[in-house]
Design a protein that fits this description.
6-stranded mixed beta sheet, 385 residues, 28% helix, Peptidoglycan synthesis regulatory factor (PBP3), Domain 2, Beta-lactamase, 21 strands, 31% strand, alpha+beta, 5-stranded antiparallel beta sheet
Length: 385
């Protein structure tokens, strides 16, 4: 298939692909009072800090990140739309804890219910949406657990959709970071909801209409200038939890705190981790450059166009001089037909001081079929003209 490689050495900027540094900071290097925590770089999932991150604990309303993820999944696949009107059941209206006091039979749009969940942590709105999507909360919880499995959340078991204390309902800090990353990266529009500080909704019932004020439970939205989300939680068993997301100078971080003694401590711990991460991380993303065509032997076409399979992102936590990154491009002088679209043709690897930090494949942009006798005759005739 491959016949002689052309190797091109260039000083380069990084492309967009996920690459993980080997260094993970452990608890002794940063002082966090909460028993479980983790700091994750959002674009790659690189863990920058962890403290007892795999112990399963009650997550309280941080659970609602998964609830919102499934709502956005349903929006994406067309099961529901933001303008859909949803009726509140007696069961949903009976939820205790944080709520917006929906009444049985009250109708709200999906958009409004999302605000109630994201901003005010409304348990009644969670159950209303679970029934809207799956018919009942139990089926919705099955989907929550299935989605958790897809994301590799190994220490999670959901029993309800809102995080109220229930035996067996638990998650780890790492799992919370994984689902937070999925929600924030796959559905960035969540920020339109979780960054709202205050907003009113209108209750319309048999008794008439009335305004109800929503206030964000995540105080970092007002107190931390880089905050972008995401969700708080507190119950008797869980104590105080938060999944805090923030963005600064192109770096996006997720800080998860579980089991803090009080609300002030959880936010202090989250800010400590976020500030640590912003001081530690360098992230580089590079532009794709023009790639050469590759000669094809025995094909209907003589040349093959190639492209990057994906982008490349490198997260540096060691203070490396990333202006000295080198790019090595390996492409064959010739490939043999047939070639399918998406076939790997070569690769680009990236090095700092001779050490490879990652690579990205180069793939065929279009297929090239194997030439038959008629194709060879056409080529000969074309040369004679």
């Amino acid at each position: 298939m491959k016949k002689g490689f052309t190797v091109i050495l260039l000083s380069v900027f990084l492309l967009y692909r996920i690459t993980f540094p080997t260094t993970v900071v452990h608890a002794e290097e940063v002082e966090i009072s909460a028993p479980s925590s983790i700091l994750m770089e959002m674009s790659t999932g690189t863990v920058l800090f962890e403290k007892d991150a795999d112990t399963a604990r009650p997550p309280a309303s941080v659970t609602k990140i998964m609830t919102m993820l499934l709502i956005f999944d349903a929006l994406e696949n067309g099961t529901i739309s933001l303008d859909d009107e949803v009726s509140t059941s007696e069961y949903a209206a009976s939820m205790g804890g944080s709520q917006v006091f929906l009444e049985p039979g009250e109708i709200q749009t999906v958009d409004t219910l999302l605000k109630c969940i994201s901003v005010a942590s409304a348990n009644d709105a969670c159950v209303t949406m679970s029934e809207c999507i799956c018919g009942n909360e139990q089926e919705f919880v099955k989907q929550m657990n299935a989605r958790a499995k897809e994301l590799g959340m190994k220490h999670t078991n959901f029993v309800n959709c809102n995080g109220l204390d229930t035996d067996g309902h638990e998650m780890s800090a790492r799992d919370i970071a994984l689902m937070s990353r999925e929600l924030m990266t796959k559905y960035p529009q969540i920020k339109d909801y979780c960054t709202v500080w205050m907003e009113n909704i209108t209750h319309t019932t048999a008794r008439g209409s009335s305004e109800f004020g929503l206030t964000n439970t995540n105080k970092l939205i007002r107190q931390y200038e880089y905050a972008t989300g995401l969700k708080t939680g507190s119950t008797g068993k869980a104590k105080f939890c938060v999944s805090a997301t923030a963005s600064k100078n192109g770096v996006d971080l997720i800080a998860v705190i579980m089991g803090a003694e009080d609300s002030k401590s959880r936010f202090k711990d989250a800010v400590t981790l976020l500030n640590y991460g912003f001081g530690k991380c360098q992230i580089y993303k590079a532009k794709e450059r023009k790639l050469p065509v590759v000669l094809v032997k025995g094909g209907k076409e003589d040349h093959l166009k190639i492209q990057y399979e994906e982008g490349f992102t490198y997260v540096d936590t060691e203070g490396s001089d990333l202006s000295k990154v080198e790019e090595v491009t390996e492409i064959p002088d010739e490939v043999k037909a047939p070639v399918k679209k998406g076939d790997t043709v070569g690769r680009i690897c990236y090095r700092i001081s001779g050490k490879e930090i990652g690579s990205v494949n180069l793939i065929a942009s279009t297929p090239v079929e194997k030439a038959d006798f008629g194709d060879y005759l056409k080529k000969i005739w074309k040369k004679l003209l």
